[in-house]
Amino acid sequence: MWSNNSAEITPGGLLLIDKPKDFSSHDIVAIARRALKIKKIGHSGTLDPMATGLLILLVGREATKQQDRFLKLSKTYSATLTLGQETDSWDACGRITAEVPVPELTQKTVEQAAKKLSGEIEQPIPFFSAKKVQGWPMYSLARQGQTIARKYSKITVAWTHICLRAPDTIDFTVHCSCGTYVRALGYLLARQLGTVGHLTMLRRLSIGEYKVDNAFDGVKLKQTPAEQLYERIVAV
Question: Which of 18, 22, 27, 48 is catalytic?
């Protein structure tokens, strides 16, 4: 158990975590609170359960006060897009809602499609997302089967790597502004190529200057003594 007094004197800062698959960002925060015996922990941007990679935990009062600054940092992701099937969530966790043949593609065709989605673009916000509509998360309304008007937001995208790995499979890396849904980029890219698709892999490589290469393995978070975790906390 923690107490307000113990939380006040506990050293704070940033704990970089490599989030494992099938854990939500909330799960990792809850595990970290128990492991570190401190209640005041936030994070710098949600990762879907399917996704892996860098999650920055903001530990302690002074760190959590600066959450907005970290949320606004740009991010880098690697992803795999599987073409031919679209899901309601635009990733592998969803239910298949459409199947469309995949045209014969070339590496050049894929690169040209990505180029059209570079710079400042409008992204459609997935219905299965935490974006709120009239105070309710969109995923909550979507699960109830309610009709939701499509929402859009402006983002900035740079495709740093893209590869047609198989006739129906594209690997890519993007550097993007905060608020980007990489699932939406996969959706848009598939449509540009004359078909549909969904993400089957997503990994966050960096947030601002912080990189997943320097992160602690989230699988080990539960079993690691608090003093060892505190040794990995860096100053804000």
Answer: 48
